[in-house]
Specification:
- Helix 8 packs antiparallel against helix 16.
- By secondary structure, the chain is of the alpha/beta class.
- The protein is globular.
- The protein contains 20 helices and 27 strands.
- It binds fructose -6-phosphate (F6R).
- Fructose -6-phosphate (F6R) binds near residues 347 and 354.
């Protein structure tokens, strides 16, 4: 997730672009850059926030009236000045690009382009776009972009400037956002409307698989074959605050709805044409085969993702696996050695207990793998290897999209270890990989079923206690669903292994208690239903999460949230979605500050 801003018009654009970047900084803030077109292309890039870029370009007026700017959320290539955008093609080519998203086939394209003599200067996937445009260019920039675009796989938005096309920005998008701001004799282009909202409220939306050419007098939209498409100009009436949330009432809602994209980005090029590649894992096949156990350490929501990882690693990689709360594990006397893999999971990469647990693990000689969403965070510096979730910036304090991104990464990791260790049949792995590929789509279909969730939120929002139950991979989902509800609605919840309920929590049940049960199709389904019967016998109200086609469950549950059918293990990534929506619907009805729940902090840097 990065932010793109472009301007073409009559005004000097440096300040307009910087102001636009500041409005988009929530999209990524590890580095920023600007490119001003004035006879030649002047590029400035800086690691850090937009402030650092502002200081580097200075106060002096720059005459350029065409330019592009970018704020980066690194996915491919470390956080360095050379990896910041805009990126250039070969020296002297005059081609400059800013990019958001992931080019899944960049490895092959880079190899081919390098073979044809192109010199690469960065570690990014973005740079292949610049070289592709350069290789296709013979005087017509729009045609060069169209031909380059056709060779790209993945999801992305990018914009291109060419030294010899002074009044033109050519851009394209597939799945990542891009919008045009329409002014008088000037046009803006951006990843999101807030970038230009102070200048114009008239917009044209770039749709999927479209190329757009912005010139001072207007924008032209083309389909991939080059046919012109008419696009109406629309007015937006958002205020500034709403604009940052892109029209959503809260960041959390926006982030809940961004989960298909977060999952897709986390998979990205790691799974391409059925091949699973985890660059960054940094373990040889021999080391993977030599592992004796895996320990997953984390806090809060990340701990719940780790619990899912534990089941997957046991099942697919046949490794003894445990998952523990970092603040507990660090004070035990853990039995680990150099054949242990310790996986530390953290959205922020800065949680002090997780960092301390990592240190303990390294002191015992274990290989420590960090799974985090934040490039350059402390965790990435302390680990032996790093795999990034790519959920983009999460602003809502209660985690949502980072959780599903972590679970997605657990799928990829457990499958990789299983394949290398030969503990998962090739056919089964291929089936699972294909299903992982379709997870973004399944997640979208799950989120689209909000109509089933809202009546339940309406019925129970005034209740003062909820119990959550699950078994096997349903247990971490019950724990996470309960955590979401208590965090944002302040309703006390308990979450339990369904089989444990009769050993205590059953005493809490009466005719008013809503009980949320994760009852997706898997080998423990029948057992879960027995526990549901125990709940019903106490007069409590059962709300079940179940798999499409399971009509029987309606006989024991008053409400059912159905999930699209997929492999049993993969249901975990879907089952949390209605539970997030339920927590959200209840908190909204209670009129609470959902993005900033009381007493909580997004990053916990104290013990
Ligand atoms: C819950 C939540 C927290 C975090 C926990 C760990 O919604 O966000 O429980 O999961 O504080 O934080 P990270 O993942 O940054 O280590």
């Amino acid at each position: 997730m990065c932010g793109i801003v472009g301007y073409v018009g009559e005004r000097p654009c440096k300040e307009l672009l910087l102001a636009g970047l500041e409005r988009l900084e929530y999209r990524g803030y590890d580095s920023a850059g600007i490119c001003l077109l004035n006879g030649d292309v002047a590029i400035t890039r800086r690691v850090g926030r937009v402030d650092a870029l502002r200081e580097a370009v200075g106060d002096a007026l720059h005459p350029a009236t065409t330019g592009l700017a970018h704020t980066r959320w690194a996915t491919h290539g470390g956080v360095t000045e050379s990896n910041a955008h805009p990126v250039e093609a070969c020296e002297g080519s005059g081609v400059t690009v800013v990019h958001n998203g992931i080019i899944e086939n960049y490895v092959g394209l880079r190899r081919d382009l390098a073979g044809a003599g192109h010199e690469f200067h960065t570690d990014t996937d973005s740079e292949v776009i610049a070289h592709l445009v350069e290789s296709q260019y013979s005087g017509d920039l729009v045609e060069a972009v169209r031909l380059a675009y056709a060779q790209l796989h993945g999801h992305f938005a990018f914009a291109v400037l060419h030294r010899d096309h002074a009044d033109e920005i050519v851009a394209a998008r597939r799945q990542c956002p891009l919008v045009v701001g329409v002014g008088e004799g000037e046009m803006f282009m951006a990843s999101a409307i807030p970038a230009f909202l102070r200048e114009t409220r008239r917009v044209q939306y770039v749709m999927d698989d479209e190329i757009v050419v912005a010139r001072p007098d207007g924008a032209t939209f083309l389909d991939p074959r080059g046919t012109v498409i008419e696009r109406p100009v629309e007015d937006v009436d958002w205020d500034d605050d709403a604009a940052e949330k892109q029209g959503y009432e809260t960041f959390m809602l926006k982030e809940i709805l961004e989960q298909p994209q977060a999952i897709a980005d986390t998979i990205g090029e790691r799974l391409y044409h059925g091949e699973l590649q985890l660059d960054g894992l940094n373990l040889s096949e021999e080391q993977i085969r030599g592992l004796s156990r895996v320990v997953i350490l984390a806090c809060g929501t990340a701990y719940h993702a780790g619990l899912i990882g534990r089941y997957l690693l046991e099942e697919w990689a046949r490794l003894p696996a445990e998952s523990d709360i970092a603040s507990e594990w660090r004070y035990r006397h853990p039995v680990i050695d150099e054949h242990s893999l310790v996986i530390a999971v953290s959205q922020s990469g800065e949680t002090i207990d997780t960092l301390a647990a990592m240190k303990e693990a390294r002191d015992h000689g274990a290989h420590v793998l960090a799974v985090t969403n934040i490039m350059g965070s402390q965790m990435t510096r302390d680990a032996d290897s790093v795999l990034y979730t790519r959920a983009g910036l999460e602003i809502g304090v209660a985690a949502s999209k980072t959780f599903t991104a972590q679970v997605t990464l657990m799928y990829l990791l457990a499958l990789k270890l299983g394949l290398v260790r030969g503990t998962i049949a090739t056919e089964r792995a291929a089936k699972l990989l294909a299903e992982v590929r379709s997870l973004p789509d399944l997640a979208q279909r799950t989120l689209d079923r909000i109509d089933a969730v809202e009546p339940v939120a309406e019925r129970f929002w005034q209740n003062e206690f909820f119990l959550y139950l699950g078994r096997y991979i349903g247990l971490p989902i019950a724990l996470e669903g309960a955590l979401k509800l208590k965090e944002i609605s302040y309703i006390p919840t308990d979450a339990y292994a369904a089989g444990e309920m009769k050993h205590g929590p059953i005493a809490l049940l009466d005719e008013s208690t809503p009980v949320v049960v994760v009852a997706t199709d898997n080998h423990v389904y029948e057992k879960v239903i027995s526990n549901v019967e125990e709940v019903r016998a106490r007069g409590a109200h059962v709300i079940a999460v179940a798999t499409d086609g399971n009509e029987d469950i309606k006989q024991v549950a008053e409400h059912v949230f159905y999930l699209p059918r997929t492999e049993p293990e993969l249901q975990a990534a879907l089952a949390i979605l209605p539970l997030q929506q339920l927590a959200y619907g209840i908190a909204r009805r209670r009129g609470l500050d959902i993005d900033k729940p009381r007493n909580l902090a997004k990053t916990v840097t104290v013990e």
